[in-house]
Amino acid sequence: MKNDSKLDTRRAITVTETLLSQFHERMYLVTDYYEHWKVHVSSGKEFKSQWAQFVKDARKVRRTHESSSTAPCCAKILSIRLWTSNGKNIVRISTS
Question: Among 5, 19, 25, 46, which residue's Cβ finds the most Cβ atoms within 10 Å?
C-alpha cells in the first residue's frame, strides 16, 4: 500500500488543512459582520426610544406652556442631546 501511486495522502492532508483554514476565516468574518449588525440595530432601537421620549416630553412642555397663563409666549429649548450606546452624538438641538 505504501507504493500505491494513486494514494497521495500528503496532498489530501494539505487540501483539507487549507479548506479548514478558509472556513475558519469565513466564520470569523461572518461573526464580525453579525456583531456589527447587532450594534447597528441596538443603536437604532436606542435612538428611536430616545426620540420617542423627546417627542413625548416636547408635547408635554407644549401643553403645559399653552395652558399656563404666566408662561412667556415663546418657550425656549436650551439644549437637548441624544446619544447612542457607544457615545456618538446623534441629535443636538440648542436654541436661545
Answer: 46
